[in-house]
Each structure stands twice: as C-alpha cells, then as structure tokens.
Amino acid sequence: MLDEQETRSLVEKPLNNSKIVSETPKSPLGFQSLTLVPSKTDLCKAPLPNEEPPRRPRRGSALRQVLIALIANLGPVNTGMVFGFSAVAIPQLMSANSTIKIDSDQASWIASLSSLSTPLGCILGGYLMDLLGRRTTLLLLEVPLVAGWLLIATAGGVPQIYAGRLLVGLGSGLVGAPARVYTGEVSQPHLRGTLAALASVAVSLGVLIEYGGGAATEWPVLAGLSAALPLAAFLLTALLLPETPAWLLTQGKKDKARTALHRLRADTCDVERELADLEAFRANIANLKSSAGPTAPPPKQHSIIKSLFEPAALKPFSILVIYFLIYQFSGVNSITFYAVEVFRESAEGIDDYLATVALGVVRLLFTILACGLLRRCGRRPLTFISSIGCGVTMLGLGTYMYLAKEAKEAGLAPPPSWIPVLCIFGFTAVSTIGYLVVPWVMIGEVYPSRVRGLLGGLTTCAAHMFVFTVVKTFPFLQLTAGVHGAFWIYGVISTLGTVFFYFFLPETKGKSLEEIEDYFAGRRDTLDTPKKRPIVISQPV
C-alpha cells in the first residue's frame, strides 16, 4: 500500500502546478480523498475531450524538392546541348579551313542523326524505368552520352561524327521520359507544374551552352567539354537521389517508399498521410478494375498492352502526340538546329554567331518565365500564346524573305534587316512560353501510374521522330518551296493548331495525378474546380 507521500507524488505528477485545497480524513483502511484545483498552465496543456492531436503539414520541404528536381534534370541539359551543337558545328565544318570537309547533305545528316536514334532511347527508357525504376534508369542513360561526346571530340572523319551523334541522340531519348516522370512523381501538386517545367529550362540552358561554346572555341573542344556534364549527373544521382515512392509502391516496397518520402519531404511533413493517400488511390484503381465484371482479370494479371488501350491512357496519348506534331512542324527546331545559317540567310550585316548566342539567351530567359507563368496561367493559355504567336512570326518571316527576294530580282533596296531579326527573336520567345514547356510537363502528369513510364517513352519517341523529320527535311523544303515557302508552311500549321488546342487540350494546373487519371478514365466529367455555392441560412418567420 502507498503511503501518503507516495500518493501525493503520483497525484501531483501530471499536474505539477495544481494545488490541494481539501483533504478528507483517512478511512479505517487507509484511503484518503484529495481535492485538486489545476492551474491555468495545466488547463492549457490538458487535451480537451475528443480533441485530435495536431496534424503535421501536408506540404513537405520545398527546398528539398527543388534541389532533387534540379539534379534529375541535368539530363535534359545534355539534350539541349545535343540540339545546339549542330547549329555551331556545321558552319565550322563547312568552312574553307575545316580539316573535315562536308557538303550540305552531310550537314543535314549531322544535324538530324541524333533525332533518329532518340526514339529508340525513348522506348528503351520508358521500358527500363518501369522495370528497373526511375533512379536506376537516370544512372544508366549517362553512359551513351559520355561515349558519344568523346567519340565526336576525337573524330577523324564524318563517320565518327555520325556515330557520336547517334550515341548522344540515344542518351537524349533515354533521359526524356525518366527525368520528367521522376520529377512529377517526387513533387507535390503545388510545385509540380513549376518543377516539371525545369526540364524545358534545362534544354534551353543546354542550347545556350553550345551556342556560347561554339562562338568561343572549335567544335572538337566543345564536344570534349560537353562530356563532363553527364559524368557529373551520374555522380550526383548516385549519391543524392532516392527512388520515387510511387514506383516503390508498385513493387510492394512500402517501407522503402516511406523512407523515400522522408528524404523528399523532411520530417516535418505528414509522410504517413501522403503514403496512405498513395496506397488508397492504388487500392481504389484495383477495386474498380476487379469490379468491372465477372470476366475481368485480377489486377496483377492485367495486361499492360490492354492498359495502353484504355481511355485513361489512349486519350492523353493521342492529345500529346498531336500536340507534339503541331509544335514540331511550327518550325521550332528548324530554327534551333540551323540558327547560324538562318541568320546568315535572312539578316545581312549582323554577326550570325553573336545573334545565335543572343537567341539562346532569349530562349533561356523565356523558358524561366514560362515556369512561373505555368503555375499562374495554366497549360491552355500558354499554348494559345505559342500557337498564335508562332503562326504570326513565321508568316511574317516568310513574307519578309519573299519580299527581299523580289526586291533583289528587281534591283530594289531590300526591306529593313531588323524585320527578320525581330521575327526570329519573337518566334523564339512565344514558342518557348508554351510549346517548349507545356507538352513536356504534361508527360509527367496525364498518364496512369501503371503505364506512365511506357507511355512517357512512346510520347517522347513520337516527339523526336517529328524532330528528325522536320530537321532533315528543312533543307529540302527550302529547295522545293523556297526559303519563304518553308516558313509560310510552318506558320499555317501552327495557326491551325490553335483550333485543336481549343477543343481538346485539358487544363491540368493544380490538379493531382489521381484527379487527372480519373478525368481521362471517365470517372469524373471535368477537371474544372466546382464553384462554391453560397450558403443560405433559413430563419423562422
């Protein structure tokens, strides 16, 4: 039995500041009643009845998510370097003092070969990141990039340059979907739009690096320096990046998914709640599939091929493929891959290399601007700016080239040379705002998690097939339709694309991956946020 002192200590322990105001006499058995008055401090600390413990915030560390996304998007920087390299290397290779001589046909192959091997990398990258994981694929893709750049740097002839371009193109294809899907899966909805746009910023940065390097040094040195970036990306990915929780859950690795979330969000975030949401969504999808009918196969045996033809996958895939078709045939990469030559043909009296570097700066700045606008304005408005703006500037550039040609044949003074410069820079600005950002961001948003990697790879594959077609046919198009005719064709395609975007492109800004998947699967009619109805309070008469 406890003595009086022990009893007092047990009673006073939970309420250290309480006071004993009355005591009853001890009973024959030794019991005594104590009346306590808790202090204000104890009343504040004591939990109220039915009160839930305070929840941790749902939003994780923004700094961690940004830093991880930056590392994941070092690969797209290399993609931009692959794009920009031909613009500065081809004029050097075609110069009179070049040690390796090339003609216009070889120049078109050097420019386009990287895009020919990129689709293979896209398909392989999509398959590998679903099979091996997003992080492992990000590591593997650096190998062909390093090998390709070193092969170009040490090339003694055109075949070695061709081989090097094929390898760096393969690496660019491998990185396309994994970088964007990884960023989409590790970032939370309020940051996803901005962080997913980092891939486009990275591509523009890579283009600028090559433009600037080509103006300062020779192409073999530039290729050798370019090999340093994939090496750095490999080391940083191996040391700092975790696997995505979404992919780990598809493999049944819940504990590893929890650990990855802690690394991505920090300990202040409600990791358990986010993990529960991810599991609940996966369970809901499994239940919907199992209840589809008595003949429906169990979720684990559900064919991936069949999943590709479900509305949740087929609808967004069709929209994005047509988006990329319009975007590429608006002439964006014809300008990117042949920038020096376009300036040389259209604007006399300017330093074509300096103008190309300035064009790279404009592209980078407007890509950064697009990241902020993407979060504020959404996907549709920015796409309209690009489709209409690219149409107007391409039609304007084509018209200038036509009038300049007519004036030259008639022996008249050509129109002012600032007009084509304004059109080219304006085209780059408006194309970057939407075309160069929106579809790449949506790759990481619109596909179901089960086939996100495969469809992301197929979409990137289609995009780079369009790049190859546009870049390879640009010289032929100039020859057959005239320089002005090529730009007119690009302008008409972009302008007409506005109609498609208006009717079919959904707005995914601020929506979770689960909401987007439900929309394309037909489980919700719209992605629009329902308007809040006013609350009507009835009062008795």
From TrEMBL:
It is found in: Membrane. It is a multi-pass membrane protein. Keywords: Membrane, Transmembrane, Transmembrane helix. PROSITE patterns: MFS (PS50850), SUGAR_TRANSPORT_2 (PS00217). GO terms for molecular function: transmembrane transporter activity. Residues 15-26 have a biased composition (Polar residues). Signal peptide: none annotated. Residues 68-509 form the Major facilitator superfamily (MFS) profile domain. Residues 1-11 have a biased composition (Basic and acidic residues). It holds the Pfam family Sugar_tr. Residues 1-26 are annotated as: Disordered. InterPro entries: MFS_dom, MFS_sugar_transport-like, MFS_trans_sf, MFS_Trehalose_Transporter, Sugar/inositol_transpt, Sugar_transporter_CS. The chain crosses the membrane at residues 66-89, 109-129, 136-156, 162-182, 194-213, 219-241, 317-340, 352-374, 381-403, 418-442, 454-474, 486-505. GO terms for cellular component: membrane. This is Major facilitator superfamily (MFS) profile domain-containing protein. It comes from Cloeon dipterum.
